[in-house]
Amino acid sequence: MGWSLCSFKSIEAMEGVLTGGPWFVNEHIIDMEHWTPAFSSSSVKGLTSPIWIRMPHLPLQCWDENNIARIASRAGTPLMLGGNMLHWGRREFARACVRIKHDQQLPVGVWVESMGGRFFQKLEYERI
Q1: pLDDT tens track of the chain, all 128 residues?
Q2: What value, to the nearest 5°, has the Cα angle with vertex 49 and ends 109 and 15?
Q3: Locate the DUF4283 domain: which residues (predicted)?
């Protein structure tokens, strides 16, 4: 499963790593979580992962960081937005990295209330 266990010399160092991310290894975001005695390598209960989601055909009035993060938060906890997303030439889809729970079903889309009215925003998950 690719698990790694890290040990720290101080609580401050551990907290710095756990709260200082997101962390990248070979251009991939890695997930860091606090170990608990209930952890089982054969179960996904309580585990989360950072996943990139796409929002294709996002209405123009929603193309700003606040709205994209708000919509992404319906799928998980937003961690970061795609780097080229807010450039005019790259508007095929909005992109955000969110922390999702492994033991919950991924939504295929979300309902959004906007200035232009209510609409259903389709979500696409990268590498799933």
Answers
A1: 567 778 889 989 888 887 776 677 776 667 677 777 877 777 667 677 888 999 998 888 888 889 999 999 999 999 888 765 555 555 578 899 898 887 788 899 999 998 888 999 999 998 88
A2: 130
A3: 2-41
pTM, two decimals, is 0.68
- List residues bridging with 26 in a β-sheet: none
User: Residues 53, 77: contact at Cβ < 8 Å?
Assistant: no
Evaluated on CA atoms 35, 39, 45, 47, the torsion sign reads: positive
CA atoms within 13 A on the CB side of 13: 5
